[in-house]
Amino acid sequence: MNAVEIHNLSKFFGQKKAVSGLDMVVPEGAIYGFIGENGSGKSTTEKIICGLMRPNNGQIKLFGKDLSDEDVRHKIGCLIETPGCFPNLSVWQNMMIQAANISLRNPKEKVAEALKLVRMEGSASNKFRNCSLGMKQRVGIAMALLGNPALLILDEPINGLDADGIRIMREVLTDLTLKKKCSVIISSHILGELEKIATHYGIIRRGKMIKQVTAEELERECPKYVAIKPLDLNSAENLLSEKYIKVTRKDNFLRIYGDASPEETVNYLFKHGIKVEEVTTEKISLEEYYIDLMKKGENEIW
Amino acid sequence: MDQNQIIFDKPSFIERLKRMLGVDFYRLLHTPVFYIFLAISAIIPAMVLSMTGMSQEGEIAKPLYTETWQMIAAKQPLYVVNDIADYANMNMVFIFGGIMISIFIGHDYRSGYVKQLFTTHPQKQDYMLSKSLTGAFSMTCMCVTYIIGTVFSGILSGTSFEVNVSSLLISILSKMILSLGWAGLYTFINVILRKHFGIAIALSFFIGTGIPVIGAAAIVGNSSLLNLFLYGSSVYACLGSSVTAFFSGAIVSIVWFIFYAFLGSVILSKSDVY
Fold first, then answer.
1. C-alpha distance from A264 to closest chain B C-alpha (Å)
2. Closest CA relative to residue B18, chosen from A100, A222, A229
3. Which residues of B touch A47 (CB under 8 A)?
4. Tens of pLDDT, residues B94-140
5. Fewer CB within 10 Å of terminal CB in chain A, N or C?
6. CATH superfamily of this structure's domain A2-219
7. How far is the CA of B208 from the CAs of A6, A34, A238, B199, in angstroms?
8. Coil, strand or helix: which one is A46?
9. Cβ contact (<8 Å) for B111 and A97?
């Protein structure tokens, strides 16, 4: 059973295609990193899943049920951009309003629990308008968590969060998926953070899903390499290209892919009279993978 | 987790509406603008009553009102306005109500509250009904403070309190029940113009002044057909009203309320909420 299944989703704003023939599958219990540039259609897709926007075309199933089935939406917790709270009311009052909207039993207990989870229990009486951006995002996350959602949709949730806030959110999300089998769709431009928690990725570009991979597949697609900084970059590159299958240059570094070890590489260069300033073993990051994919897409499209 | 473990709650319409009304009333009672409009409704009759007798260039102006209760409703249902006394009465509450509802609903959208709301149990018709009922309540409260303000200003200015009590009660109750229809209309306007707060508030004000009906009356005269509209029925609820005015007002109010709630729900269901 998949938490979300989207087939051929399209959404137009006048002549502009925000989402065009998008397919997407989020398995149950997954943390799905939804990645794309600004205006690529992430938020629109998320709003459609939440029922805030109507698609022009396509099928959406949540837990096997059609999105038009109103009951299924009650299992969604969401934070789209910023939390929708009344600024003149306190954090607690806003949370209680949301608890009423989702017909929560024992609302006081549940609200206190959610606020504690995001370390906001001490600020419950603060007026929402007096909260910092990071505190507001925490309140939004707490609201999304109310009522034990089976699917959590978080659009840029770490915007404005401090390091501690980001760590808390990471812990909360990991805990939710492991213990409560909650599925999470999370979009963020902070790919380094996403990489730490996501189990699946969907990369969207101009309203189309260009790649869906699991974290394991991504791991395989992002190989490790030895990065060295030789004093004589050109000679080292020529020399290493003869020995290894793939050698690339990035800034003042050479990257050697394949089964090369740092010691072996350094010794090899040293034997040929080339000194090395730095050597490390690294892995292609999600950010780099994403940028390469975008560049590739750019070349294909144009 | 397999599908059997996910429980999809299905609260009944009544349960949903009760919860939503609870939230809306809570919000209303925590909205400073509501109390500001209650105060304005109380002050306006005093202002109008005192100003109508003010001296102008050394001469004492003839008072527009000879009886205090004319501040509540005109003596006769005059749709064609000849002077301010035909116009300035408790119907002004419907203008304040329009602005109040625009602010209330506008706040739902500007704060982003609707995106929290519509991803949960409440449905579009619940929203329309709840906002309309809360708006009707706020206008009824304004009617009460308006009456209190009228009585006080009548006492202070020494204006006569003579009236046919049953007609007065009928006109007051009619205007109160007409709040429902007006609230439905304003909720509809604000839901349709949800992305244009400024236009929504201006249109609510314009409709609330009754200018469209007054304009129509200038062409067709004091026709009873105008009672089919909310402003017409509000004018019809006057100090000369019989019980017919009450029932016709109640029917007009409820029919328009249902019409706007239905139309608003359909439009909301077929468009992007946020």
1. 48
2. A100
3. 115, 272, 274
4. 999 999 999 999 999 999 999 888 888 788 999 999 999 999 999 99
5. C
6. P-loop containing nucleotide triphosphate hydrolases (3.40.50.300)
7. 46, 47, 82, 14
8. helix
9. no
